[in-house]
Amino acid sequence: MNANFLQTPIVYLKGVGPNRAETLKSELGVETYQDLLNLFPNRYIDKTQYYKIGQLQRSNADVQIIGKIINIKTVEQKRGTRLVARFKDDTGEIELVWFRGQKWIRENLKLNLPYVIFGKCNWYNGTFSMPHPEMEPLKEHQQGTKVYMQPVYPSTEKLSNKGITNKVISKLMQQLFIEINGKFTESLSDKLLYELKLLNKSESMFNIHFPKNQELLAKAQFRLKFEELFYIQLQLIGKNVSRKKKIKGFPFLEVGEYFKDFYNNKLPFELTGAQKRVIKEIRSDLGSNAQMNRLLQGDVGSGKTIVAVMTMLLAIDNSFQACLMAPTEILANQHFQGISELLEGTEITCALLTGSVKKSARKPIHEQLENGELNILIGTHALLEDKVKYKNLGIAIIDEQHRFGVAQRSKLWHKNEFPPHILVMTATPIPRTLAMSLYGDLDISVIDELPPGRKPIKTVHRYDANRLKVFRFIRDEIEKGRQVYVVYPLIQESEAMDYKDLMDGYESIARDFPQPKYQISIVHGQMKPADKDYEMERFVKGDTQIMVATTVIEVGVNVPNASVMIIESAERFGLSQLHQLRGRVGRGADQSYCILMTGHKLSNDSKTRLETMVATNDGFEIAEVDLKLRGPGDIMGTQQSGLLNLKIADIVKDNDILKSARFYALQLLKEDPSLSKPENLIIRHMYAQLVKHKNIWTYIS
Ligand code: ADP
Ligand code: MG
């Protein structure tokens, strides 16, 4: 069918009219014929199968059964009565139950006559029972027109109030199919259809709305999901390729003295295989003419900092400057200290710029940055201020990417005549599937190996009632010379209450761990940066044994001697946050522990989160569970959720199809980058259509 025809406003469809058009638009976003066609059913009611009573499962699914009523009676209940019939086939018996319309039913139902019944079966009091079944004598059922699988479309209260029921939508769909003659222009190439044994477009569209049977429905779903994901991947990958062609980066041709000297003489440890591989990937990007735009994923403690340092050295070797931006002051400080130490004995200059650096101290930094004396600038958001101008920024490294918005990233980008290379480091592993869809236009490196000798952190879940035991454990660990974190939730909406929790907790700990034997640090969001730093510093130096804090310490902080992480009200934290917090320990050679404290009342999701934390240390595994619990939109924040506005595919459930779609999109662009081969014209055409009508990727800017 002509693509322009499908852009016809829905108001012109027979049976719609201005009122319905308005409601369809506001409730379902359906404005055109195409939109209606893309309104895919949520589920289907299967009337192709007949179940035997003996086969019924406690699945609460709709079932269709043939049998007879052998007895019917009225049962008194607290309020009024119910009508109960025993319904039997040759494999067993169930109950049919009515609460309304009992008189009519009693008068009209015939005993011992074969009926086809349809409805949900509940497991109740040791038998299956079906309330208010749809019923039809078998004879009539066999003579009537056959309904196969009945689609159930998305609905809202307003839709049903306005009489746009599921039946009405089905009718409109039928009408639309009549108008377009059931014909759809094919939108995938013959090659793909053949290789993947896909149903063609017309058959897929027909069977998604009017499935003839389960098998054809499954094929239709597969094909349409594949198509949706394929075109998204094609677009993302295509964008990446053209970005690399268009946006020139500064080529760092040399691996010079700074890098070599560091690698040969200053590395404090042997790099892991994964670190070496990632550095190689970065080097090859930087050596090309394209601008690097790379996401570096590595679990907490996997050693991303050293990769960042060596990347910066490559820039400096080629006479460029580098910057490293962190989300918190604490982390920026720590990076500055750590990196300064690593670079000791070199001529490389390095400065720290955060919100609390005084005006007088900023001036020389600004100047040295502009005249090129300063090689490396480390800091927070302060790096984005207009006053911060580089002589020649060659690479920007952003730590803990998930805390920065896209807008902020592009701000960095626009600081230069040419965009600097960008390396985004994240310790919250984004599930691979999600990363592929969201960042198809970024290159991704993964550090999937921890430095040697790390012992997995032992994680346990304890109820508040066992606090005394937990305190005893803390005492023992401190006795061994270890340090302990105690973390409280801080959620903005209830800041005052959280603050009280933190202070109460602090007081109770101070009582149980009295001075002078024990020293306690406290860090929270309402403190002045200087006080925070002071408290943090005492803990880093080992002057205090216990650090009571809110989540400000979540990101990046590195105190290898700390071996116990206690998370209070752990049920209030998300999985990725729990994992981040746990990552603050287990950084030294000692066995480390994470104790998740909660009350007794826990939601199912909370239980799953706690169980997952206890079961695994693997950030990727945790990220996958998180994705399942929260859904992709939540994980990436509202900003990017439009990205996941898929019509039919589901990023979590259709992971395999996504992988295959990506594989074929990559292959296609490799073989025919401009999509100009005759056999790919269909794809080229579809691609152009989609871009024009912004159909599935309104999100791509
Ligand atoms: P993250 O990836 O969480 O930023 P860091 O870069 O802070 O991790 O590294 C965590 C700790 O591991 C640091 O103390 C660092 O010195 C150490 N480390 C990093 N790489 C190695 C390695 N290859 N061998 C031994 N220790 C390492
Ligand atoms: Mg880090």
From TrEMBL:
Q: Name one GO biological process term.
A: DNA recombination
Gene3D superfamilies reported for this sequence: Nucleic acid-binding proteins (2.40.50.140), P-loop containing nucleotide triphosphate hydrolases (3.40.50.300)
Q: Which GO terms describe its molecular function?
A: 3'-5' DNA helicase activity; ATP binding; ATP hydrolysis activity; DNA binding
Say which domain of life the source belongs to. Answer: Bacteria
Record flagged with keyword DNA-binding: yes
Domain Helicase ATP-binding: residue ranges: 285-447
List keywords of the entry alphabetically: ATP-binding, DNA damage, DNA recombination, DNA repair, DNA-binding, Helicase, Hydrolase, Isomerase, Nucleotide-binding
Q: What is the catalytic activity of this protein?
A: ATP + H2O = ADP + phosphate + H(+); Couples ATP hydrolysis with the unwinding of duplex DNA by translocating in the 3'-5' direction
Every Helicase C-terminal domain range = 466-633
Instruction: Give yes or no: UniProt keyword Ribonucleoprotein.
Output: no
Question: CDD domains, alphabetically?
Answer: DEXHc_RecG, RecG_wedge_OBF
As recorded in UniProt, its EC number(s) are 5.6.2.4
In which family does this protein belong, per the annotation? Belongs to the helicase family. RecG subfamily.
What is this protein's function per UniProt? Plays a critical role in recombination and DNA repair. Helps process Holliday junction intermediates to mature products by catalyzing branch migration. Has replication fork regression activity, unwinds stalled or blocked replication forks to make a HJ that can be resolved. Has a DNA unwinding activity characteristic of a DNA helicase with 3'-5' polarity.
Which protein is depicted?
ATP-dependent DNA helicase RecG
Q: Which organism is it from?
A: Maribacter litoralis
- List the gene name: recG
